[in-house]
Amino acid sequence: MNMDVALACRNNNIQPIDLVSAVKELHMLTSEELSKLIRDANNDIIQWTAHDGSSKQINVETLARYLTCHLLAKLLESKRDEQLFRYLLAGLRLLHALCDIAPRNSKLEQVLLEDVKISEQIFDMIFFVILVLSGFRQESGLVLLHSAMLSCSLYLLTAFVSTQWNELALVLLAHPKVDIFVFGAFSAVHRDIQFLQVRLSGQYSNTAEIKGLCQHCEASLQFLQSLCQQRFFRERLVKNKDVCEEGGILLLAYDIMKLPFCEESSSYLMAVVSRLKSKVLSILLHLCEVESVSFLDVAASTSRGLNLAKSTIFQVLELLRTMFRGDLNALSDNTTYPRGLLQLNAMRLTDILSDDSNFRSYITLNFTEVLTTIFLQPHAEFLSSWCSSESEEEEDATLDYDPLSASGWVLGVLTSSDVPESTFNASPVPPTSYAFQRTSLLVKVVANLTCFIPDLCKEEKDLFFSTFLQCLQKELPNLPYGVPNDSRTERVAIITQNLRSLFIHAESLVPGFLNQDDVQLFRLFIAQLEPLITQEFSIARVTEANSPLEESNQLNIYGPQTFSGRGVHESDGDAQNVETNGLVQFRKRKRNIMNHLQISMIEQALQNEPDMQRKSASLQLWAEKISLHGSELSSSQLKNWLNNRKAKLARAAAAKDIRAASSGGDRQGGSGTDPDPDEFFDQGVRYEAGQIVGLRDGEGEEIGKGCVQQARGSWCGTNLDESGLCVVDVTHLKVDKWSNLPHPCDATGTSFAHSEQITGVKRVLWDSSKLVPQPPKSR
């Protein structure tokens, strides 16, 4: 804190103004009561009768102008005990009430909302209070006061700055002490979570205190979550060494994920804990979205950070394990219990981690058992859980926090009956969208783990398949010698049946929820797993009557017939609804931490030095070179970018090989009839720049026409030859221009309209196999 401000506060505190009486008496009033007192004041002099019967008065402007400095002086000079904390909370409650009245009172508005000097003092007071709370180590009876002071201090920012989170985030980022605020806020919330952890795991009989602590913890965490939803704020947060590199955010996440659900003692506590876990996972997901600096790279940059990250991830995987085994059931009488949203956020994070070179092998070793559990479900149950559009409506519950009521109850101003029940602003997730997102995330995780990149991680060769088989062996019943293997055969047959059903369903989710590469890699997983199962468990191959084609025909009721045509368009609409509700579908984490010039420099350098990621000297040299032309990169960041580039190319190449093999197999044993034109174009027509083409979607429907701009070489970091893509300028579009692109990137954006905003034309990346040559226009 600025010592000049501290000295000024001490000096202001000496003046003959009875601010102590004002705080002790006026904080007990509601905003409405205080507003009436101010309206009835003569010459802006508030008058009231104290508890001892004496008459008190103070000028409205004086109260507003000196209250902040007075509270700061008390914090600096007094012993930090219960008496001080109660007094400061009373002062914060009074300040909240004054800020609430300010827009309707010109005097208060001029002082609290327009006076720059007073605003700076309020910022300093809030930041200093939070910093003090972050270093608080006592238990005793101050826990409830600690949590209430923190939440009231945080939400005071929305009271005097803005209730719009984007505006508040920009104001905070412009403040010179923002990094101190961020560190203090996360540390102080972590302290409250630790207090809550002790009370939930112990034999505390004071349920009212625990409920109050829960409410304050959720409000404070929700405040940080709302800030992290703002792009510029989370970009600044990832660069905060104390919070990210030193593990501050991961320590908070770890302790929240370890909170017990208390399902046997209280449905209220179970719901609160679920929301806390969901919100902290949401924060991690937002940090993983940052492109300028990779949060996962920062977290894994030290051995301590890497171990802490793995410990946190383990808690997330244990949560999914519990949920998928059915040990945790949703409460039918509590609509704000977000089990579905918590599960989605946990799966989203698992999807991102399984596609990251820092954590892919860890996910393989610790999540594969969960996958085998899922795929061993009885077929009817599996279809209902993973191949259906039906699910109960899920809600994203946002706590509607009232600092005046919350602090009033802690201070004894309000009784429990006077405090309204916690209310929530619910954003329902459409049931169909929730079911499709859940299924798509499962397919993505399997696709990520299936993709093997030899040049990147030789030690991971066959790791996923061998681990899967080990987990399968563990899950299957241990039959005594001589007993027929019918039970084993039946269980393994269930896996095959479930996987094929899921593949059919996954195809129907392209392109709304899945991209074609993920589906083809999932197909590769099935194709490679079946012979391994046959070999491992000595099970005869499926008879001709149960061939994949026959099986597919039998399961069509759960596949494309249910979700094709109009149903796909409905799912796209549901996705739009989800996006407006703040539950944006988390796509694969983009690694575009460099601009186009930097990418071009690296692409050119890779032609002469393809194994750059293995040479530390080269990495350091090129990291320094390209940092002169854009964002500053470390050698470790460049190495991870190169590794993920290889992974992306390998995924695209694998998917292309699968498509080629699939279409080649379909053409074997021709019927002698005329070739299908769509099948003909799937055989790899080579396109040239300037060629007019039609664009088809995942359903094979033509959605527009355009002109090929580039068909070979590298374009904005994408190898067109290896990925099987072309750069196309779309000239005619039959679908909505805001439709999602199958291959979004920095150069094209995420939709046709976004691309037009960036480049001036609808320039997109499109699969060569989904382009149809058009006859040239007649002159």
UniProtKB/TrEMBL annotation:
Cite the source lineage.
Eukaryota, Viridiplantae, Streptophyta, Embryophyta, Tracheophyta
Where is the Homeobox domain positioned along the sequence?
Answer: 585-652
A GO CC term assigned to this protein in UniProt = nucleus
Offer one Pfam family short name for this entry: Nodulin_N
Kindly give the PANTHER family that the UniProt entry links to this protein.
NODULIN HOMEOBOX (PTHR35743)
PROSITE patterns in the cross-refs = HOMEOBOX_2
Q: Which UniProt keywords apply?
A: DNA-binding, Homeobox, Nucleus
Q: Example GO molecular function term?
A: single-stranded DNA binding
Where does the protein principally reside? nucleus
Show the InterPro entries listed in the entry. HD (IPR001356), HTH_NDX (IPR056560), NDX (IPR039325), NDX_C (IPR056559), Ndx_N (IPR057287)
- The UniProt annotation puts the region (Disordered) at 656-681
Keyword Cell membrane annotated: no
Its subcellular locations are: Nucleus
Protein name (database record): Nodulin homeobox protein
